[in-house]
Every structure is written in structure tokens, then in C-alpha cells.
User: Fold these one by one.
Assistant:
Number 1:
Amino acid sequence: MFLLPVFVIAQNEDSIMIKKISDDILKNGKAYDLLRQLTKTIGGRLAGSPQMVQAEKWGLETMQLLGADASYLQECVVPHWVRGKGDVVAIKKINNKTTSKTLAAAALGNSIGSQKTIVANVLAVADFDDLEKRKAEVKGKIVYYNSGFDVTNIRPFKSYSESGIYRRNGASRAAKYGAVGVMIRSLSESTDNFPHTGVMAYNDSFPKIPAVALGIQDADAFWQLCKQNTISVSLLTHGKMLPDTIGHNVIGEIKGTEFPNEYITIGGHLDSWDLAEGAHDDGTGVVQTLEVLRALKVLNYQPKHSIRFVLFANEENGTRGAEKYAAEAKAKNEKHIFALESDAGGFTPRGFGFTMNAAQLNKVQAWLPLLRPYGIEQLSVGGGGSDIGPLNQQFGTALGGLMPDGQRYFDIHHAANDVFENVNKRELLLGAVNMTALIYLIDKYGL
Ligand SMILES: [Zn+2]
């Protein structure tokens, strides 16, 4: 009987604070303007590119401007892949009859270029099982994988993780049987025709062959064409892996008052693919992270734990920034109690996913009534992000990931239409509201 009022008072105090956070961010939030700067003045910023350097400088200056107690760059070695000039894929022959139809195609990240035009017949397969059945036909051909998203999955992220294997491993699986090139259906079910790039990797046991993704409209038509006909295509890409170079995680801190040596990390990744502006992936995670910093400083919140705001390097084609951050934390024997990532797009927030033990999850789930007014419907098991994953592996750090509405993310993911114009200001800010509220609750009550 006695405990109930105390609980109610605490809930009330917290709901007042979260309302303050929300009001301030929705009225005065800078995330949208910062996103415009990052996407429109810098643009795509793949590891090793000149834009990466510009983005790091911008990130550091912004941390300082927003009043971080400390801000600095953390050096790490990053890979340096360049696409080179235009990827060109075209249908050259249909049943030996000459034709010329250019396909919307983009080389996959980290793939080697063909350097000169390859012309070869196509073996179109539905999936790896199909490839295995037809392996005797592969030699000298360009293999096309039509494996697409399972549209019956309600969460597109599930489809992405299921189909991702074709982008990552498709080239070497086909090279094993003598393929000279690979084309995949983009990892998307968009209705437009932008090709979606993304990282791939070679198995060193087999020859390295060029690999591209086709836009969905062209992929659909191409698959139909291949069913009835013998198709020959030409493929020209220029991708190159240059020597590793130096990149940086950009880090800002607010010092903890009670437990200055215990850290809460919040972040997104600063790098993005070269084809677009990296707005949703992951410009929004970057500016939401900066928004949390801004809001906590403006509201004069004095955290108990030290809070780190991290713009990670090289998530897309190496995750070297993530590895460096965890390695440095280990070398300094830091204590990391929680890490939160936003890397699922800047759409309307729906929930958070957590990787933590049952007791911690129970504690966090009890806060749902405090977050529900701001659009959070679930605090569920499983979540985090690839930039904070190594902290969990290193220290068992509890992880959280913002879960925005995912229905439109793969329309733009790693494609030329991932631009500022496709981000909605209120959706972006609401994500930052909930991230700030969650950080506030975890800092106040611990885990
Ligand atoms: Zn991302």
C-alpha cells in the first residue's frame, strides 16, 4: 500500500521529464537541419572517400557546437573501395538476335571491376538450390539470381536478412562452378527501378568475379525473358579495392556525475554508400544521436553515467569503426552498461529491440507506459546494431536498437533515392524523442 504512491510519484516525475524532452525536440530540434547539411553539402561518404573526411570534420564541429563536454576523433584503419566510372550492363542478344537494352545496375560494394566489357550468356537461377542443380551449365556464363524478398514477411528486415546471402556470397558460389560474372535481384521490393548496392565478400578459394545488382523493374522483366530465351549480356564495372586508409569514429561525451567511469553509448554510422546521400542509412541515426546530445544539454540534464555520442566509421563495408570502439574500450578497461543504435531508417518510431538479460528486459519493459504516448508500441527481445554489437561480444553490454516503421526502408536502402527529400522531419524528431527518453530512463535507474 505504501509503495504505490512512491511509484506513482516517480512515474509522474519521469513523464514530466519526458514531456519536456519531447516538447523541446519537436519545437527546437536541429536534427532535420543537420541532416540537410550532411546529405546536401557532403553527400555519400563511403570509407576512404574525401566525403568521409568532410563528414568527420562536420561531426566533430557539430558535437562542439552542441556543447559536448569533450569531443574527439578516434582513429581507425578503414578499407577503401571505389566504384570508378559508371557500371554498364546491357542485354546484347535474345536467342542470337542482336539487341541492345541497358539494365539499371550497380556494382556491389567491395566487388572487383570487370575492367573491360565481358559478354556472356546468362544462366538465370531462382536460388542456390537451383544453382546446385544446374551447376554443370555455369561455366563461362554470367549467373543471375532472382531470389527476392519474401513479401509475406510483415517485417521487411526479416526478408533482408534472408535474401542478404545472395548479395554477400552469390559471386563466389557461382565462381566455384566457373561463372564469369554475377547479377542479383536488388535486396528490395520497391516498385521503382533503382539498383541497390551493398557489401559483398569473396571466398578466396575461388576466382573473384564482378557482381552487380539489378533494379527491381528490370529484374522482374529479365527473369521472365530468361525463362523462355537464351540471353547474352554485356557487363562493365570498374570497382577497385585500394590500400587501407585512415578513418575516424567521431565521439562526444557528457560526463557522469555519480558514475563517471560507467558508459552509456548512443550512436549511428557516419559512412554511407556512394550512390546516394545516405539520408536514412544512416544520416538519420547520426543526426538523432546529435539531437539527443543537444536536448540533454539544453535541458541541463546532468547524467549519473557518462554518455558517449558516437558517429561510427565504416559500418557499410567493414565495421572497422565498431571494432575499434570496442577494442579501445577494452584496452582502457571501461565499463559499458548500455549501448543504443539507430540504423534502421528515420521513419516513425514503433519500438525498441533489446539484447539483454531477462531481469534487465523486465525493468525496461515496465517503462512502456512512459514511452507509449510518443508512439512506442513495443519493447521487444532482440535488437541492437552492427556498430554496437562488438561491445556486447566484448563486455556483454546490454544493447538496444530503435525500431522505426520498416515498410519503406528497403525502397531506398543503398540506392540512389536514399536522399534528404525522403526523410520526414516529424518522424525523424519523434525517433530522437524516444531515444532521449530511453537514455534518460536507463541513466536514471541503471540496468
Ligand atoms: Zn546502416
Number 2:
Amino acid sequence: MDSLSRHEDYGSLPLEEADMVANPFDQFATWLKDAEEFGIYEPNAMVLGTIDDNGRPTARTVLLKGLDTGFQFATNYLSRKGHALDGEPAVTAVFGWYKMHRQVIIEGNAEKVTPDESSEYFATRPRGSQVAAWASEQSRPIESRAAIEDKFDDAEERFAGEADVPRPPHWGGYRIVPSRIEFWKGRSNRMHDRIVYTRDGDSWAVERLQP
Ligand SMILES: Cc1cc2nc3c(=O)[nH]c(=O)nc-3n(C[C@H](O)[C@H](O)[C@H](O)COP(=O)(O)O)c2cc1C
């Protein structure tokens, strides 16, 4: 496969400590905006890694849905990831903006947002997504496509007379409260830049790592 032997030159544009702001959330917000403006497809997609009951890592993509004291995403609390997070809140999340030669790696703990926060976000979702949240027991097996479509139709029928679809109790947000955030910028000769923020009490320590 050609892609396995490709060695792209990531250019020489540097990532300098002097260009990085003291608060990594602000730095992240700037990079996310850059990714949006660059035209990255789904710039808010992150690969979320969790640890299951057997201590094994599992990963999947979720979308960043809010940025405040942490990185928020929404999902089914009874899904495979939800069960993993019930037992072990430690997570990692990776944003790969490859066309920009940029990557951000977050490590921290995921905690559920408040029910009110979940409901507020759920209310902004398209009705079809809201119905699907009732229809799908995320991560559980189902015998066929037709069977899950039947479940969707049943849920649609259930809420047909209602102006608003309520939030299912099993659906909501998590906030990843980070302890470490790494900003990576590809450079020529694999001499990449890596700047890491590590939580240090109320502030952040900043270090450069070898590529
Ligand atoms: C681009 C993209 C965005 C996704 N966003 C979400 C999301 O925000 N929430 C979610 O629960 N699943 C999302 N998914 C589906 C998940 O990757 C995954 O299939 C699902 O959450 C079940 O994961 P689990 O069985 O590990 O719990 C997304 C998938 C892709 C490819």
C-alpha cells in the first residue's frame, strides 16, 4: 500500500513556546478555530480512549460539543464507553488535524455533566437524532438493520403527538477534565514540535518534548 510508505515533508513552520498562550484551553480554542477555517472535515472529531472492566483500552470517535473547564461530548450512558467510564474515569482523546500537520492529545478524567446541561444540549439536537437516542441501545447487538429501523419507527410513533422529544435518562454529556494537553506540530525530518501543558495546582506547567 502506497500510503504505508509515504513520507510527507511536514514543512518547517515552527511551533514556538512564545506563540503559545498560558492557558491550554485558549490555545486549543485557537487551534480548533484554525482547523474550522482551514476546512478540516469534522474538526471537532476526537478519538476517545477508555479503559474497560478488564483493564483493556477501547477507542472510538466522538464529537466535541462544548469547551469550558473541560472538553464535552455527548453519548449513551449505557453504551460500551459509558460502562467503561462507570468503572474507570481516566480517558485520553486525540484530535488529528493531519492536513494541517497538527495533533492535540488530551488526558484526564471524564465526569458526567449535570442533567440540566444534558437536557439543554439535547433540546438543540435535530428531532431525528432525539428519536434515535430513544431507539438505540447503543453498543448492544441487534439481529438486523430492519429491526433497528422498527425501533426507530416505534420511538417516532411514541412521540408523534409531542412538540418536544424529552431527553432519555440514559443519554447525556461527559466533561473531560484534563490533567495534560499536548500540542503537536509536524516539522521537517521528523523533528516535530511538541509542547505539553501539565496541570500544576491552579496553573499549568509548560514543557517541550523531544519528537
Ligand atoms: C465522526 C464521528 C463522530 C461521532 N460522534 C459521536 C458522538 O458524538 N457520540 C457518540 O456516542 N458516538 C459518536 N460516534 C459513534 C462512535 O464512534 C461509536 O460508534 C459509538 O459511540 C459507540 O461506541 P462504544 O460502543 O464504544 O460506546 C461518532 C462516529 C464518528 C465516525
